[in-house]
Structure formats: C-alpha cells, structure tokens
Specification:
CATH topology of the largest domain: Rossmann fold
Helix content: 25-40%
Radius of gyration: 20 Å
Strand order of the largest sheet: 5-4-3-6-7
CATH superfamily of the largest domain: Nitrogenase molybdenum iron protein domain
Largest sheet: 5 strands, parallel
Number of helices: 12
CATH architecture of the largest domain: 3-Layer(aba) Sandwich
Strand content: 15-25%
Length: 290
C-alpha cells in the first residue's frame, strides 16, 4: 500500500510544479511494441479505435478533432453522431482511409489493420496494456503529447492522482475486507480473477480490501472450489456478469453471496480516466459504515 501511495504522491508533486507551455512538433512517443512513433505535425483529424482513447481525447479537450470512432458499447455519448469505422476489434481500413485521418489511435495488428494503415502513410498509435495506475497515467500522457495536449494531460493526471490519494487516505485503517474481483462471462464456466499485477488488484488494496487472489498473477481462471475456500466477503464484477455469479448454485455458500455483497463495477471504467470514481465506489462498498 505504501509503495502505491508513494508512486501516486510523486505524480502529484510533479504535476503541481508543472508550468503549461506551447507544444511544438515533431514529437516522438513510444507505442505498445516499444517502437518510437514520430508525429510531424499537430493532428487535426483523429480517429479512435477503442472507447478508452475516445475518452482520453474528450477529457483532454480534443473532441473537436475527433472525426470518427469504432463501434463500442462503452463509447461516450459525446461521439454518438460521429461516423463509425467498424468495431473496435475489426475496424474497416478502407473506411478509415476515406476519412483522411492524420492520426489513428488504437488500431492493432489483430486483423492486420495497423500495418495496412501504416503502409498507406497514416500514423497509428496504440499504448501498452494498462496494468497499474502509473500505466494509465503514462497512456494519458502519451495521447496528450501525440495530440498536442500535453499540458492538459498533466493537469488531468494530477486531478486523478489527487482524487486517488484522498480516497485511499479515507480508506486506510486496520480493517481489511477480503475481496475478489471476478469476471464471469458465462454462468457455468469458472470466472477469471484479477490477481497481482492488475489494476483490479491495485484498486482493491487502495480501497481498503485484501485481494483473496493476490497469490496469482494476471487474470487466471479460478475454480469454483477456490472461490469457496477463499471465501471473499465482497465480490466485484462487471454489472453484466453479476447474475452469472449470484445465481450460481455452486457459490451459494460464499460470504459475499450470503450477505448480498456482489457489486457491479463497469470493466471499461477500471482502466480509464474514471478510475478515481471506480475507487471511490469500491471504497464505499467495502466500508459502508464509513
């Protein structure tokens, strides 16, 4: 806990001392492959392949330069009238090129979209997987630099970090609630648990919980027997997965189910600029007595 707090506190100190400046181009950032991406000029036509990048750009004040997005149930309402370039997992390269973007955020190699766009001369940027709050801050900063909104990114990072510290401080105390963060996409298949090295794990600790699956890394599939034996007092899951947990007869003896403490936390908000809101909700649900 102390390590997490010190990391975010350092971020706040840096941001408090930040002086806004006029960003110049070209700029160079590092993508999820570890490759340096150079952006020659301030992007004026940006396409977002993924609700995360869309949210970043809106929160940074760049909505006016967003010309299209990929279809996603997590898209903010602010982009409801923008053109759609296919799904987040299978964007249409031809449609993207027809809109003449100078920056595409989030196109990956899953279907060969990134190589096709780069071959056509379009700059593509995708940030690394988010496994911690510092990762989230780095992603916000990277998008901010790429889009010419670096100072806005630093301000946003500072606001989130300050909120996280305040919420975490309120949650500090001797009582650590045994908690699990599970993703149960189907009713009959054992769920996946947020273990160490995930933002879910970090948020549990910051909210005043004890992750019952802290001894495993990443998102392993955990058996129903393991959930029973670890007996979490609180279970967090995506709202769409709640029924798959509470209606499972194999989990009826788990404390979280017996005491109606299975709570929905939107998965897309966990790794987003809404993370402080997520942490606040988790802290209040873990410690309803205040």
């Amino acid at each position: 806990m102390k390590k997490f707090k010190n990391t975010v506190a350092f971020t706040v100190v840096v941001v408090v001392g930040f002086v806004a400046w006029s960003q110049t181009y070209p700029v160079t950032v590092v993508d999820d492959r570890g490759i340096e991406i150079t952006i020659a000029n301030r992007p004026e036509r940006i396409i977002s392949i993924g609700a995360l990048y869309t949210e970043f750009l809106i929160d940074l004040g760049g909505l006016d330069r967003l010309v299209a997005v990929a279809e996603s149930p997590d898209n903010p309402t602010a982009v409801a009238n923008l053109p759609i370039v296919g799904s987040s997992f299978a964007p249409n390269v031809e449609v993207i090129l027809s809109l003449e973007p100078d920056l595409v955020l989030g196109a990956t190699d899953w279907g060969g979209e990134r190589p096709a766009l780069e071959k056509a001369g379009v700059t593509v940027l995708t940030t690394p997987l988010l496994t911690s709050l510092p990762d989230l801050f780095t992603a916000v900063r990277t998008v901010g630099i790429a889009s010419g909104l670096k100072s806005e990114a630093e301000v946003l990072i500072g606001q989130i970090a300050e909120a996280v510290i305040r919420i975490e401080s309120d949650a500090l105390g001797p009582l650590r609630v045994r908690t699990a963060f599970l993703y149960a996409g189907t009713p009959d298949t054992p769920p996946y648990a947020g273990g160490s090295g995930t933002i879910e794990h970090e948020l549990i600790l910051r909210a005043g919980g004890e992750n019952v699956f802290a001894d495993v890394a990443g998102f392993p599939q955990v058996s129903f027997e393991a959930i029973l034996s670890s007996d979490p007092e609180v279970i967090f899951t995506d709202p769409s997965h709640i029924a798959n947990i509470v209606d499972n007869p194999l989990l009826g003896a788990v404390s979280a189910l017996k005491h109606n403490r299975v709570h929905g936390i939107k998965a897309s908000h966990v790794t987003s600029t809404k993370v402080a809101e997520v942490l606040k909700a988790m802290s209040e649900l873990l410690h309803p007595e205040g």
